[in-house]
């Protein structure tokens, strides 16, 4: 009996491209599952045909047994004028006795054949039929359920992408005025979060389908082995009927036995190469996916990086990730990771409603209201003066320049500074911070007007080499 060949020796050609991909693929996630269901249905019908064939053969043999009983009656009575024949063996009487014995044996053989077909051969195919049904239910509860999860995740992603498109259009038409939760930057990160969950569901379902696909080769080999075994037993039962019957049934079984265990599987792979999944193809990655408005100008921050903000209670500085968006918000996040959890701002200031103080060294203040809690939260929110500190004076100046352009107003108030006064600069020092050619700054008295370390422009320039607009 042939040994089944691994299913990965000749895999289908359909792959997932490593280039830009659609966020919501147009493929039917249940297509592979339906194909395997149809294949199981085909094998179930094939086994059903064999069951019907065995049942019909059993009925014919039972009927033949009854017919040979009628034949036996024709020679059952003693011969007329039998006394004219020698009753010892080898004579005419012995010949008829032999005829009666063999005829009875033929009748009994047909009944025995019918009994063996019904009690030993038919159950083999019935059990195989049941196995195929169980395999079909297993496929429906396993891979079929995974396909439904993928469809559900895709629907959630599509809904958020449409929301991003709507808010991006609002940004273009209304000059960027919107609430914090509708900021296209936030929505774009929300799309990535849901897209990541969707792709996890897709890859899990894909792995389930690959496991099913690989197991089908072994299951088909098992089906063919059982068919071959059952047909072999069938041949042994009917082989005693006659040489001619033996030749006919032997030819059928021989044909069955000559089927390689992987013959049907390899043909199946070739016919459906455009549907089945290639296990060697790479899994999907968020980095390779493109979705509408992903690179919309409203989603690209004017500046982004880490700043320190003084706490209200402990009065110590904590480092967080901040961005200033084209929608004129400054958002605070714990991290810039879009995938660990949904990127919801811890703090959001709408800069046109805020006032920015002067910059002093690494520090500057912003006075405004936190609008990150939606309409209800914004109603009870109060104005606060928030103290920020950058990593370098150059970085602070760049943040201040960009924030000042979007802020509703600016004051000459300098933030509180705990830094010691430079011994080089005395009371007669000029009231403005100085920038040396080596990039060092001297701290002078509080000034009414801050000096910019970088020209104001719509595109931020970074104080860190190689990272434009990022700290």
TrEMBL record:
SUPFAM superfamilies: BAR/IMD domain-like, PH domain-like. InterPro entries: AH/BAR_dom_sf, BAR_4, PH-like_dom_sf, PH_domain, SLM1/RGC1-like_PH, Slm1_PH. Signal peptide: none annotated. Residues 1-28, 411-471 are annotated as: Disordered. Keywords: Phosphoprotein. This is PH domain-containing protein. Transmembrane segments: none annotated. Residues 300-408 form the PH domain. Residues 1-13 have a biased composition (Low complexity). It comes from Amniculicola lignicola CBS 123094. It comes from the Eukaryota.
